[in-house]
Amino acid sequence: MRNRVARLKIDALASAGTTFLMDDRWGRPLVGLLKGSDENTQPLLSEWHYIEEALRPKADIFKGDLDELLAVSPAIIFMTDRARSHDKRLKKYVEDGGLLVRFAGPKLARRPDSLLPVGLRSGGRDIGGALAWETPQGLAPFERDSPFFGLKLQNDILVRKQVLARPGAQTDTHTWARLKDGSPVITSAPLKSGRIVLFHVTAGPDWSNLPLSGLYVKMLGRILPLAGHTQAKTQDKSQSQGDWTAEQVLDGFGTLKSPPPGLAGIPADEFSNTRPGPRHPPGLYKQGLRHLALNTVWKPERLHALAAGGLKQGQYGGRTPKSLVGLLLGLFGALLILDVFLSLLASGRLRRTVSVILALGVMAGAAVYPAPSVHAQERQTDKAAGWQDALTLHLAYIKTGHAESDRMSRAGMEGLAFELERRTTVEPKAVRAIDIEHDPVDFYPFLYWAVPRDLKPLSPKAVDKLNAFMASGGILILDTRDQDRRKLFKNEIHPGLAQLSKQLDIPRLQVPKITPVTQAHVLTKSFYLIHEFPGRWADGQIWVEASQKGSARDGVSSVIVGSNDWATAWAKDKKGRALGVIENEIPRQREMAIRFGINLAMYALTGNYKADQVHAAKLIERLGESPSAPAGEIRVPGQGGPQ
User: CATH topology for 374-607?
Assistant: First the structure.
């Protein structure tokens, strides 16, 4: 599985910066086991059996003679005493960056060779035989500079025989593991670009019971990562020369594509220090049979947020834009008056022109006085729109009388309209502010109502208007916007909803019984497949009509109740920039809130047609087409198919 992983991506974010390509360096290491001419064919008596069982969970294993191993260029070669070789190509393999792991035995004890990390004494050390004065030795704790440091020792591991290293300062620095008497049992030393590791015991249980322990598996596992830095150098010399050429490059969306013509290659000795850019774009580069990835995250470390650099930080939605026209005109007028005053003073005609100066002052004061607000004109337009909204699609919200709440509701509806036009075929013409007591409501698919805590009782006329709106297919969205209070006061009843609840006793307002939304509800799949319904907050419960089986409304809920403050998360200015401040309780919370808003609009406009998909598989099966058939596969929308 590890060798089949091609890339790592952050879910639902399509960009080159969120894509990390995997190359030859990230796969399981290829380990070569050098076969000898006199290997034992019985598994439990063969030293290779114990090495294979220890390495199999963490590496790909290839067995063969030296010619076969060098042909596949393994990252590590394991050589037992029976497979001992004096071939000069083995030494060159190590010098070119390979890792050789050797095990001792009778042959090495009788006649040491030069391909060793430390010098050896001829003859072995028998510390467990019938004629030996010494008793078998256990392992000493691993030193801090050993790759085995931190592994827990087992007291039952005993060494009966070993090959002895020649004492000296160099032997001490090359020792990875010792017996309790201080004699080295595992040594290692570099050889040019590669490394040699020697176990001073056999690979099987002939000289010790180490191969029978779990510690043996962990120790070999600690050795494997040492080949990660040299694996790219284990190819033959002809392949290590030349440039790395781009085979596929990443575009801005993190998709691999063919490289543009004329793209320059990267010299082999410069690849590790090459930063991605226009000259060398991120992607997969090839040299012979090898592949290396050049990722946008260059030498990845812990990522930190960029420092503000002295800039003032803030979020959208703090204040409304303020016109400076009046202030600038007033400043211009003041400078003009000063200029006239100084001119008259210099000419000696100041007394005769006092009246002129006073007149100019009045004009400047009039310029400073701000012009009437554009929003006042918009309110008049909303009130006068009336029946014209029957001809085109409009989104609407109910005015509450609170300026800040109504401003955010309008911005939320405008932001939702902007996203609907950008992402779907729905094109709302404008947003209307509805006075529930006076304005008609028959022409809007839904009414968003940020229910205030000080809601006043509705008049009978408004009650009848809401009843007719819901009976004709409209959806009333009640947003209490108080999820932050609900976290502190879980049993608190919203005063505005409490006021509506009082009117439930009056038969005039026919608000149905409500129930929490389930994951099978059409709201979760009317356009996007979603499982959460966030706004400014993300953990508020959403409620819909309990019974939706009536044919009059096609099973669509006439009321939706929530507390997540959806308008704040939808709010955008005319340039599409977010205005509201959200709490970011879940990843990509604003995007998820917009998706819920689009699902909500689609639900209001199209009804519950997506609910029929739960039966689509059965209908297709009755027609003789299996949705799971491998040939001519049918994908049902909403169940893995297109949205």
Answer: Rossmann fold (3.40.50)
